[in-house]
Specification:
The complex is a heterodimer.
Chain A lengths: L10 E4 L5 H12 L3 E6 L2 H10 L9 E4 L5 H10 L3 E6 L14 H24 L3 E10 L12 H21 L5 E7 L5 H6 L2 H8 L10 H12 L10 E4 L7
Parallel strand pairs in A: 1-2, 1-4, 2-3, 4-5, 5-6, 6-7
Helix pairs in contact in A: 1-2, 1-8, 4-5
Chain B lengths: L3 H10 L23 H15 L5 H6 L3 H12 L1
The chains are: A alpha/beta, B mainly alpha.
Chain lengths: 249, 78
């Protein structure tokens, strides 16, 4: 069947695959025919994602426990991946603080996880020549890279930084045919959101979404799949907003 | 451990236009003219900094007086 969006035969590494958007991306990639390598810190939760991966294509999936904040762990992950056709940098955290209360420790924690971890992994994969020619790198950014709300400075700043790095990767890797792009989700129903917003805040936020619902992890996964597939062969350095119309307001 | 009196002082410090004398343990803080969700956020951050306690948005929302909020902080410390 003709399908330029297929991932059949491609090997895709997904970070932050234990939960939320990362888990959905891993599962959806496997359904699109990819060999998926899932990575995360928590073995038990990562195993859950791994067990949900579609094996009907005879794909060869792999699970690697790694802490992206730890250099030795990153090196070990990069050693084990084999040659990749795609990377989804999805791992991320949040810490809600008004700007006047932000400390170096808060800044380091959020920027380390949301920006440096993805930059470092991508950098290491490139240096070790793990990315095939014409491969695709996707970064999970956020609408927060363009828009702000009280208390979200660290998240917004780290996602804006990540987005700027994505564009730099796009420029510097273009001669190898390697593409780099970002997806920018609005509010998606994940554990990260459930832990950070009250029920009342969620109800108020819903009014900001023209399509009248929050995102499902799969809504974002499908955008990521487009950016990983050959259908986006002429797309690099772009920011794809996936937000139910939130940014229209 | 900080006393209720000390908590009231820290609480009042988060306001710019409200005189500290207007804020006591019994103040119904949501009724203050200057009250806003951003001040709610700064209170959560202040409690984190001063007490090492991570209050939730709901803790602030469901507290009526300054003392109510102080008691919630104490409850987390138990």
């Amino acid at each position: 069947m003709y399908n330029p969006f297929s991932l059949k035969g491609k090997t895709i590494l997904v970070t932050g695959a234990s939960s939320g958007i990362g888990a959905a991306t891993a599962v959806e990639c496997s359904k699109m025919g990819a060999n998926v390598i899932v990575t995360g810190r928590n073995e038990e939760r990562l195993k859950k994602t791994f067990d949900h991966l579609d094996i009907s294509f005879g794909a060869n999936h792999l699970m690697i426990i790694a802490d992206l904040a730890d250099e030795t762990s990153v090196n070990s992950l990069v050693e084990q991946t084999g040659i990749l056709d795609g990377v989804v940098n999805n791992a991320g955290v949040n810490r809600v603080k008004p700007v006047t209360f932000i400390k170096q420790d808060d800044f380091d924690y959020v920027f380390q996880s949301n920006a440096w971890a993805a930059v470092n992994l991508t950098r290491s994969l490139c240096r070790k020549k793990k990315l095939r020619k014409n491969s695709s790198i996707v970064f999970t950014s956020s609408v927060s890279a363009f828009f702000n709300a009280p208390g979200r400075a660290l998240y917004a700043g780290s996602k804006a930084a990540l987005t700027a790095f994505m564009r730099s990767f796009a420029v510097e890797l273009s001669d190898k045919g390697i593409r780099a792009n970002a997806v920018h989700p609005g509010l998606v129903e994940t554990k990260l959101i459930a832990e950070n917003l009250t029920e009342e805040e969620l109800q108020n936020n819903l009014k900001e979404y023209p399509l009248n619902r929050f995102g499902k992890p799969e809504d974002v996964a499908w955008a990521i799949i487009y950016l990983l597939s050959d259908a986006s062969a002429w797309v690099t350095g772009t920011s794809m907003i996936v937000d139910g119309g939130f940014m229209l307001k | 451990m900080k006393s209720l009196e000390e908590f009231v002082v820290l609480f009042a410090e988060q306001f710019d236009d409200t005189d500290a004398s207007e804020i006591t343990a019994a103040t119904v803080f949501h009724d203050l003219d200057e009250w806003s969700s951003i001040i709610g956020l700064t209170l959560i951050a202040m409690v984190d900094e001063e007490f090492g306690v991570a209050l939730k948005g709901d803790d602030v929302k469901t507290s009526v007086t300054v003392e109510d909020l102080y008691n919630k902080v104490l409850a987390y410390l138990k």
